[in-house]
Design a protein that fits this description.
The structure holds two protein chains of two kinds. Among the domains of chain A are: 306 residues, no CATH class; 59 residues, no CATH class. Chain A starts with 36 loop residues before the first helix and ends with a helix. Helices cover 60% and strands 4% of the residues of chain A. Chain A is mainly α. The N terminus of chain A is likely disordered. In chain A, the strands form two sheets. Chain A has a three-stranded antiparallel beta sheet. Chain A has a two-stranded antiparallel sheet with strand order 2-3. Among the domains of chain B are: 70 residues, ARM repeat, domain 1 (Serine Threonine Protein Phosphatase 5, Tetratricopeptide repeat), CATH 1.25.40; 46 residues, no CATH class. Chain B has a three-stranded antiparallel beta sheet. In chain B, strand 2 and strand 3 form a beta hairpin. The relative contact order of chain B is 0.09. Classes of the chains: A mainly alpha, B mainly alpha. The interface between A and B is large, with 50 and 43 residues. Strand 4 of chain A pairs parallel with strand 1 of chain B. Chain A: It is found in: Cytoplasm. Chain A: Belongs to the eIF-3 subunit L family. Chain A: Keywords: Cytoplasm, Initiation factor, Protein biosynthesis.
Chain lengths: 526, 167
């Protein structure tokens, strides 16, 4: 199967494996020790705001000032080195770790990291997370920043695995470094840090106690108004999403979903306070459910987030995450198209989302449901476009001839996915006949479908098996929009009628009326 | 990685059907390992079960007794799965179709049916000489009228939000 449009390189678009052969940033006249005045001012103010816990100002500087300075002064060079700015901030250890984290993040975004830089970034994360885990941090940082830390950590891990798997053009030097620093970006190391943040922060217990009204977390967006720090708690919280993402990259969907379980995605929460986190959570949740054949769960969540993005993306146009938001939006439409082709539904998809979907993938969805060769290549294309950048976590064997194996993980997931699609091939034929009849004999349907009766029985059982999903508690639910049962040799069709949701309607109206009454009470008639 | 242990885990995963454990395991096994004979056999067996081809499954399983005897309870687990799928699909099922699905015939099938009649609410119509029909217990999947109207049910948590208004 051709690897279609699978682009295993993330943005920035110009990153490729031969990065280290390119001109290093030294050649561009970069002096790591030169600190422009605006940078000096930036670090001094940021340091002060962090010490004074002015979360709003920190957020402004982090989101806006850092971006504009990067755009203006550091378009294609790194920021000044941490050593050069340290004395402006009292050589504060923690601030330097934070500065370095931003320094590396900028490097990854605008330039291409060398192997040494990747390893150094890993060391920095180790130090930073150790400090947080020891509970000695007394800051309040904006959720955006804390999310970005976890997100970037997982991204750099993914990037490293991709990089390391391309052994073909590695130099002697690089191989020596890889052998020497074999702990850097080790999969267990990554998982351990994320797990440690979850456990040390006790975030799962906090969320449990919050449900019983014994604790405030979501209500304050994770911020601590009792003079404490939000850093460990919120990092622990976001690490659950980080774990979901890592496990999806490894193809372990079940574990990924388990890690996410403490977060109730049917409600707002801290994960929705940052749009990047909201999208990443739902994207991976939906994808994992797709691979677990829980199509309706995936469709429901994709629908909600796509509607949300549609309504709110205009507010993020200036944000540095805008491109990523748009990209994930497109990918989720592709995944939704796949889900709906495998499991047609009428409910669960909202008007706006549906029309967008038809526009982008209407044609392709019709072709996908034909299940001919062309259909499989469309499934391949959409899957490859929308899937996560799967990785092989194990280190290469340095003895064998050096090959590139960075595509192996992706190829396996694609192959198994298409295998599943193939098994469902005959189901759309069954569906189209069931839609036309209220009852018919097995022998009749067998004739129409040009198979013998025993084969038809197996096809009908496949239909039942594939359309009845098993959730994590072992409960069976039917995903079928058209269902049937067999009485000896007769098929009786059961059409599911769309149900009017009176309950929801009344709840909404009750709340609305109460609001109206309260407003009226406040009106004074003179 | 001990392929022996992995193979046993895959067999357990087959036994867990209809849960998707088997595919979950495959996602985690490198492709070149999946090319080994014993894994290829297990994948074929899984394929037959996934597509309701029970007769093919039992035929293939008989050719690889070493694999299927590696884990105790294998046959019963697959029979359970077969009955599960049949219960989703049929209200009444011909004896021959059932026999093929659970790989029992003659006296052992009779014994099995008696057991199911006594303990699981199965009803037998007709006898062996005429074509016998087995009536499976009704559930929401083979009896649409039993389907609970889940769509309109509201979780208690949502109602609690309007308690202050109602109270």
């Amino acid at each position: 199967m051709a690897a279609a449009s699978y682009d295993y390189e993330d943005a920035p678009a110009d990153y490729d494996g031969s990065a280290d052969a390119r001109a290093s940033s030294q050649d561009l006249g970069y002096d790591p020790n030169f600190v422009p005045d605006s940078v000096k001012s930036f670090v001094v103010h940021l340091y002060r705001h962090i010490r004074e816990k002015n979360v709003y100002e920190i957020h402004q500087m982090y989101e806006t000032s850092f971006q504009s300075l990067s755009d203006r002064l550091f378009k294609d060079t790194p920021w000044p080195s941490v050593d050069a700015v340290a004395h402006y901030v009292d050589n504060d250890h923690v601030f330097c770790l934070l500065y370095r984290e931003m320094w590396f993040r900028h490097l990854y975004a605008r330039l291409s990291p060398t192997l040494k830089q990747r390893i150094d970034s890993w060391d920095n994360y180790c130090s930073l997370f150790q400090v947080v885990l020891h509970g000695v941090v007394n800051m309040q940082l904006p959720n955006q920043w804390l999310w970005d830390m976890v997100d970037e950590f997982v991204y750099q891990f993914q990037s490293f695995c991709q990089y390391r798997a391309k052994m073909k053009n590695k130099t002697e030097q690089e191989i020596a470094l890889l052998r020497q620093y074999d702990q850097a970006w080790n999969v267990y190391g990554v998982l351990n840090f994320l797990q440690a943040l979850v456990e040390k922060s006790m975030i799962i217990q906090i969320l449990e106690r919050e449900k019983e009204g014994l604790e405030q977390f979501t209500a304050t967006d994770g911020y601590d108004y009792n003079g404490g720090s939000n850093v460990l708690k919120v990092l622990g919280y976001f690490s659950m999403v980080g774990l979901l993402r890592v496990h999806c990259l490894l193809g372990d969907y079940h574990t990924g979903l388990k890690c996410l379980q403490p977060i109730d995605i049917t409600q707002q929460g801290v994960y929705t306070s940052v749009i990047g986190s909201h999208i990443t959570t739902i994207y991976h949740y939906g994808f994992a459910n797709l691979m677990l054949r829980r199509y309706v769960d995936a469709i429901r969540e994709f629908n909600k987030i796509l509607l949300y993005i549609y309504k709110t993306k205009q507010y993020h146009q200036k944000s540095p995450q805008y491109e990523q938001i748009l990209k994930k939006n497109e990918q989720m439409y592709a995944l939704l198209a796949i889900c709906l082709s495998l499991c047609p539904q009428v409910k669960h998809v909202e008007e706006t989302v549906n029309s967008q979907l038809r526009e982008k993938y209407g044609e392709k969805m019709i072709r996908m449901q034909r299940y001919d060769d062309e259909a499989f290549s469309i499934y391949d294309e959409l899957f490859s476009y929308a899937c996560p950048k799967f990785i092989t976590p194990s280190a290469p064997s340095f003895e064998e001839p050096l090959v590139n194996y960075n595509q192996d993980a992706y190829r396996l997931q694609l192959k198994l996915f298409l295998y599943e699609v193939k098994q469902q091939q005959l189901l759309s034929g069954v569906r189209s006949f069931l839609k036309v009849y209220s009852s018919l004999y097995l022998s009749e349907l067998a004739t129409y479908m040009e198979v013998d009766e025993p084969t038809l029985r197996t096809i009908l059982m496949t239909y039942k098996h594939k359309t009845h999903a098993v959730d994590s508690d072992g409960k069976i639910t039917s995903n079928a929009d058209v269902d049937f049962y067999i009485d000896d040799n007769m098929i009786h069709v059961v059409e599911s009628k769309p149900v009017k949701r009176y309950g929801d309607f009344f709840l909404r109206q009750i709340a609305k009326l109460e609001g109206l009454i309260n407003d009226l009470d406040r009106v004074r008639l003179d | 990685m001990s392929t022996q242990i992995v193979a046993r885990i895959l067999i357990k995963a087959l036994m867990a059907m209809p849960a998707p454990d088997f595919s979950l395991c495959l996602f985690l096994i490198p492709e070149r390992v999946q090319m080994e004979d014993q894994f290829k056999t297990l994948i074929v067996l899984s394929h037959y079960l996934e597509t309701g081809r029970f007769r093919h499954f039992w035929d293939e399983a008989a050719k690889h007794r070493n694999i299927v005897e590696a884990v105790p309870g294998f046959e019963q687990a697959i029979q359970s799965f077969a009955i599960h799928v049949l219960s989703l699909t049929y209200q009444k099922i011909p004896r021959t179709v059932l026999a093929e699905a659970i790989n029992l015939k003659g006296l052992s099938l009779d014994k099995f049916l008696e057991h199911q009649k006594a303990n699981c609410g199965w009803i037998l119509e007709g006898d062996q000489s005429t074509s016998q029909l087995i009536v499976l217990p009704p559930n929401e999947f083979n009896h649409p009228e039993l389907k609970k109207n889940v769509a309109d049910s509201i979780p208690l948590e949502h109602i609690t939000r309007i308690f202050p208004i109602l109270g």
